[in-house]
Amino acid sequence: MLQATASNQAVAEMELEEDRKSLAKRESHATNMELQLARQREALKSLKGVGGEEGGQAPGEDPPGGGIPSSTGRPGAGGSQEAVRKLQEDQCKGAQRITDWAGEASSALVPLGLSPIQVA
Q1: Is the pLDDT of residue 62 over 80?
Q2: Number of folded domains that form the chain
């Protein structure tokens, strides 16, 4: 009985340690994503400064809401979902532009006797 309890406790401790490692890995991944989003935000700000103002925001000016406070107290964490959604929309629009271009290029090549571009 005592041996079974000790064995169960050892198994539970191993599972707990695995959970801690998994949580640490996920936290690290989330932190890295926040840093990448912050870099992308800065790159977008600099592009807006080069390409002109968008949304009535001066170049280099922080977006409304300042540093985007979050429940964790770290800047960027609260707006990361919004930033990810925006990036996904941009990717979707970019993919659509590529698909449209490939369709145009394909239909332009057919009369020339060239093999059309395969678009999935």
Answers
A1: no
A2: 2
